[in-house]
Amino acid sequence: MTQAKTDHYTNSALKIGQVDNYPDRVAGEFISKVVSNDSVNGEYKLIVVEVHEAALRAYAGQMFHLLCPSPDSSEVWMRRPMSIYRINRDARQLEFLYKVEGRGTRGIATLNAGDEFNIAGPLGHGFTLDPQWKNIVVLGRGVGLATLAPLSQLAADNGVGVTAILSARSPDVVMSRDLFEACGAKVVTVVDTDNSSEVGNVEKILAGLIAEKKADAFFTCGSERLLKLMQRLGREHNVPGQVAMEQIMVCGIGACYVCMRTFEVNGEKVLKRVCRDGPVFNMQEAVAW
Questions:
Q1: Which of 21, 46, 67, 195 has minimal Cβ neighbours within 10 Å of its Cβ?
Q2: Angstrom distance (rounded) from CA 62 to CA 175
Q3: How far apart are alpha carbons 7 and 15 in whole angstroms?
Q4: Which SS3 state, helix, strand or coil, does residue 142 take?
Q5: pLDDT over 80 at 19, yes or no
Q6: Other C-beta atoms lying within 10 Å of the C-beta of residue 200
Q7: What confidence score (pLDDT) does residue 287 get?
Q8: Are 252 and 262 in contact (CB under 8 A)?
């Protein structure tokens, strides 16, 4: 890390440096400013923070390591990894969609507009689009939709059509529909309450998109059963894919090896660090959620 500087735009401390040997992977520790932190529904909140322009290097699928305030009298010792929900470069803002669940996210929920929030990133490898792809399919469930949502921006910027299949327990907790639609995606909602989220029904939807040549690539996050479905269909129909993995992390830069997971590469089981080698991986190499 370089010596701390001052960001005169946000009057915030800033440290920037490379996280590995890739010159384009520059990460920093930033004191962002909370713009808003509002409830989306009974389970999820959306926090918007104003950041130094260096943090806007982030792209779809990458994450930040958040230093959560304590929701009680005890300290929150470790940062929490969180994928980027939306990047607003004109306003110099990042957005994070999160479920209020553990102590870390309960701490984030206490932040108000104007508060300072320490974030580190952008970290990891995100999503990529092959120039030959004209139409992609995004399939996610629950909070996994927050990770997939930036794909709508990335696809729109590259003239790629998107079909987004959004899965949830019930219609009131379906996430990211507005963001996908605003970027021109065709949205299909499947939920548990009417059994439309059953694997058999989702498979019919995917098979139809493949037949219509609307599935040049698959993307998923948030459900092992949906991952396995896309893996199988991808193998059967030669459709490539990417999966964003979720995992407990400590350092976020690959030094501690806490986030190791097993992958199968060319028929051989290998261990990879989700924070540094991912969090986005080749779908066919993922062994399990």
A1: 21
A2: 19
A3: 10
A4: coil
A5: no
A6: 8
A7: 87
A8: no
Q: What is the spatial distance between Cα 201 and Cα 112, in angstroms, rounded to a whole number?
A: 42
**Token pair of 55, please?**
């943090």
pLDDT for 17 equals: 52
Secondary structure of residue 138 in the 3-state scheme:
strand
Taking alpha carbons only, the member of 115, 4, 104 closest to residue 54 is: 4
- Domains of the chain, start order: 5-123 (2.40.30.10), 135-243 (3.40.50.80)
Q: How many angstroms separate the CA atoms of 173 and 9, rounded?
A: 36
Closest CA to 61 of 111, 4, 123: 123
In the chain, the amino acid numbered 266 is: N
- From 222, 231, 128, select the one nearest 175 (Cα to Cα): 222
pLDDT given for residue 142 in this prediction: 82
Helix (H, G, I), strand (E, B) or coil at 31: strand
Q: Is the pLDDT of residue 4 over 70?
A: no
Arithmetic mean of pLDDT over the chain: 88
Q: How many CB atoms are located within 10 Å of the residue 5 CB?
A: 14
Q: What is the pTM of this model?
A: 0.87
